[in-house]
Amino acid sequence: MNQIEAICPVCKSKVIGDHYLCPGVFNAKRIIGNSETTPLPQDLLYHYTTIETLEAILKSKTLRGSHYSQLNDWKEVEIGIQKLKEGLEKLEIANSVRNEVSAVISDILQKKFNCFITSFSTQGDLLSQWRAYTDSHNGGVAIGFKGSKLHRFESNSCSLLPCSYTTQDNDINLEQIFNPSWDSHEENDSSRDIVLIQKCLPKLIQIATTIKHYGYYEEQEWRLISIENDNAKIHRVQDSCLQKQFIEYKIEPSMIDHVIISPHHDNQQVLVEKVKKLKNKGLLPNECNIVCSSIPYRDVTVHPSLGQLIFCWMKRFFRRVCKILHLQE
């Protein structure tokens, strides 16, 4: 893979390699669509999941995008929103525009928009990813998608973008978003405000949903983001007390380059055989390689049986009863 050289837009230092961004720095220019500053997608982007989900993806030939209110980072969007608010304060615009943008930013935070996200990583064998997104006992897989093939989903309402990672000290310059929009309007055009907000809304949501806390930096995440897409059917399923919302992308087996098996020592060969069966059924392309993780890790967590759980509960119960009786004496 060719090494890509760029200049970080905030600290102006040189960035060489696969990360594109300096640690703790995010880059709003890449969202504008400027070909000189937009990073090229990685050759391979990995989607970590369980073996059951892999089978479901292959059989249905679909990949899900989850609603942005249901992602695992509990401060998802909040960091991006804070940066947008700080950038808005520094922007020299009319109060009417500022108020409209502020209202839109609040709506983004309250998850009022239909924004759906599918997550990938440039890292195909990362221990933190295995622990977070695969079964802790039975393991899972990392599906290696061809980055160039994922571009087929991009449209006016859908983008494939790298996440950026920030600290509290970084700023964002919203003039890169709004100034090009202003240039296309007459200064006294009364309809400019509404048109401007509508035009910039997708970019504001993209910024809010691709800025993450620096603690997630090692994931090197890319996101397929669908925003207010009228062509995408929204599915709803009830999971415990939560109603999950998602959309689906139609995929082809040829989009998958290889599959990496998680580093669960006791279960790795079992997973290899399961993936081979899926390949033999024609659900994976013939040229798709099955690779085992090189990380020497195994799950040593003790998973108690139902009988053991009942015994522990009864033991605690009788201790509590004895303590109460003792106090009454």
Question: What's this entry about, in short?
Answer:
It is built from ten helices and 14 strands. It has helices at 29-32, 51-60, 78-89, 95-109, 127-133, 147-150, 175-182, 192-210, 268-280, 306-328, and strands at 4-7, 14-17, 44-49, 62-67, 115-121, 141-146, 158-162, 164-166, 211-213, 221-227, 235-239, 242-250, 256-261, 289-292.
Q: Which characteristics define this entry?
A:
alpha+beta; 6-stranded antiparallel β-sheet; 329 residues; 35% helix; globular; 4-stranded mixed β-sheet
- The portion of residues assigned to helices is 25-40%
Based on Cα principal axes, name the global outline.
globular
**Radius of gyration, taken over Cα atoms and rounded to an integer in Å:** 24 Å
> Main beta sheet: strand number and arrangement?
6 strands, antiparallel
Count of the separate structural domains: 1
The number of helical segments is: 10
Count the beta strands.
14
Helices and strands, in N-to-C order? EEHEHEHHEHEHEEHHEEEEEHEH
Q: Strand fraction band?
A: 15-25%
Distance between the termini: 77 Å
Average pLDDT taken over every residue:
75
Structural class: alpha+beta
Regions with little confidence, pLDDT below 50 for 5+ residues: 6-40, 183-187
- Across the major sheet, the strand order is 7-10-5-4-12-11
Describe the structure.
- The chain has 329 residues and is α+β, with helices and mostly antiparallel strands.
- It contains 10 helices and 14 strands.
- Helices cover 35% and strands 23% of the residues.
- Strands 7-10-5-4-12-11 form a 6-stranded antiparallel sheet, covered by helices on one side. Strands 3-6-13-14 form a 4-stranded mixed sheet. Strands 1-2 form a two-stranded antiparallel sheet.
- The termini are far apart.
